[in-house]
Amino acid sequence: MNWITWALLSAFFAGITAVLGKIGVAGVDSNLATAVRTTVVLVFTWGITLATSPVASLRELSNRTLLFLALSGVATGLSWMCYFRALQLGQASRVAPVDKLSVVFAIVLAVVVLGEQLHWQHYLGGAFIVTGAMILAWA
Question: What does pTM read for this prediction?
């Protein structure tokens, strides 16, 4: 499968996450809900990794790789905690589109941090995402 297929699967599962998460946070502390979700993700991903990758490959990870993966993990945890709190307080059909503004942040950070070049499609697509999120959030 190519990157587009994987990205579409990611979007599909993220959509399911919004609905299941909204149901799951009902009447529960959102931080506790995030901790339960994270534990499931941890066990699930380690299970897949141990079944498909040699354990020895862990030793091949550089300190730089570990640092940036750890920072990415912290950012993911903070994102999930905020997302579950937002789901607890708002409608999934409004929270999820605002959460997808992460695409716009990723585009900007890709330019600033990674030095990627933007084309007119990035600007237009980013504008559509912002506009769509605003329309859906304040509908």
Answer: 0.85
